[in-house]
Design a protein that fits this description.
The structure is a single chain. The chain is of the alpha/beta class and 328 residues long. It has a single domain, classed as Glycerol-3-phosphate (1)-acyltransferase. The chain is 30% helix and 15% strand. The chain contains eight helices and ten strands. The strands form two sheets. Strands 2-1-8-7-3-6-4-5 form an eight-stranded mixed β-sheet, sandwiched between helices. The protein has a two-stranded antiparallel sheet with strand order 9-10. Helix 2 packs across helix 3. One of its GO terms (molecular function) is acyltransferase activity.
């Protein structure tokens, strides 16, 4: 399984609200989740996207966060901040146009922040549908479940993503394979990018950060270490003045090489930012269930090589000894 070194030591506290405000936020979240299915059902198809975006933004507000969207596709210097009257509302793509949205993964609030820009589907951990609060929302958003410990199921997930992109859906993926604290990050694994290559779908890199009320990057939403949904939600609901900043970087064309596409998107999302924990060891082994395998996507700079299968020569008759294995 992909893993990160982030843990409780990465989470730094910020200003908090009182118990009364936390209860008010919880009631607001509950009201939104109860009313959304019915409102979405009775809303005409042509207006559902606007309603869904409005619900996502209100939910983000109930979590104690403001939304800031920066569209670098329009202004490379990042001066065009949506919501301050400088630009039209930013979107990942026109309705009916397939787009793969690629973003680093910090925590469960990422889904709400991204949907507040424009409704989209997600590739998310399979057990999310069983979570309180977010489970129902994940089902309504037609989340594509992925069980990362089942490596053999990965091609099927890639095929599902490809089918949804071909149908004109916007799908967000988290190629790091796990969550990080926000000040540290991992490598973007190329496997899921194959769906964009197969369907010739443009990829929208997104830089997502959470800032405190003073504009300093904070790690409160990080879902890391031994965090449970309850402990993470409690920390988020108690926070004061957080801002979810969504930066839309230049769109990347898929090309023909998923590894090259992954590198380009990672460069777009990270820029010159340095990870708190430094670079990961390129030779690290990962655990996948009971099988020990080496992550094939880490050595991104080396070409893919198909090696011959290891074969054993038969026992030499009359000798009683075995010749060394050949190949591999």
């Amino acid at each position: 399984m992909p893993s990160s070194p982030c843990g409780p030591g990465c989470i730094e506290s910020i200003d908090e609200v009182g118990t009364g405000r936390v209860i008010g936020r919880l009631l607001g979240v509950a009201g939104l989740l109860i009313s959304f299915p019915m409102v979405n059902l009775v809303t005409p198809q042509s207006k559902r996207e606007a309603v869904q975006r409005g619900y996502a933004r209100t939910l983000l507000s109930c979590l104690g966060m403001e939304l800031r969207v920066v569209d670098r596709r329009i202004d490379p210097n990042g001066r065009g901040v949506v919501g301050e009257g400088n630009t039209a509302p930013a979107v990942y793509g026109e309705p009916g146009t397939g787009v793969m949205v690629v973003v680093g993964h910090i925590g469960w609030t990422d889904i709400v922040a991204l949907a507040a820009v424009q409704p989209l589907g997600f590739v998310a951990r399979a057990d999310m549908v069983d979570w309180p609060v977010l489970g129902k929302l994940a089902t309504l958003m037609r989340v594509i479940p992925i069980e990362r410990e089942k490596l053999r199921a990965l091609p099927g997930v890639v095929a599902q993503i490809g089918a949804r992109l071909t149908a004109g859906d916007r799908i967000a993926v988290f190629p790091e394979g796990t969550t990080w604290c926000g000040r540290a990050y991992g490598s973007m694994r190329p496997a899921l990018f194959q769906a964009a290559v197969d369907t010739d779908t443009p990829v929208q890199p997104v830089r997502l950060r959470y800032l405190d009320r003073h504009g300093v990057q904070c790690t409160v939403p990080g879902f890391v270490g031994e965090d449970t949904f309850a402990s993470s939600a409690r920390r988020v609901l108690r926070s004061r003045g957080m801002v979810a900043e969504v930066v839309l970087e230049a769109v990347q064309q898929p090309g023909t090489d998923r590894r090259d596409l992954a590198r380009r998107c990672e460069a777009a999302v990270r820029g010159t930012e340095l990870s708190r924990h430094g670079l990961r060891d390129a030779t690290v082994w990962i655990e996948a269930g009971n099988t020990r395998v080496q992550d094939p996507s880490i050595a991104a700079d080396t070409p893919e090589v198909r090696r011959p299968q290891r074969r054993l020569r038969p026992m030499l008759r009359g000798r009683g000894r075995r010749v060394d294995a050949v190949g591999g």
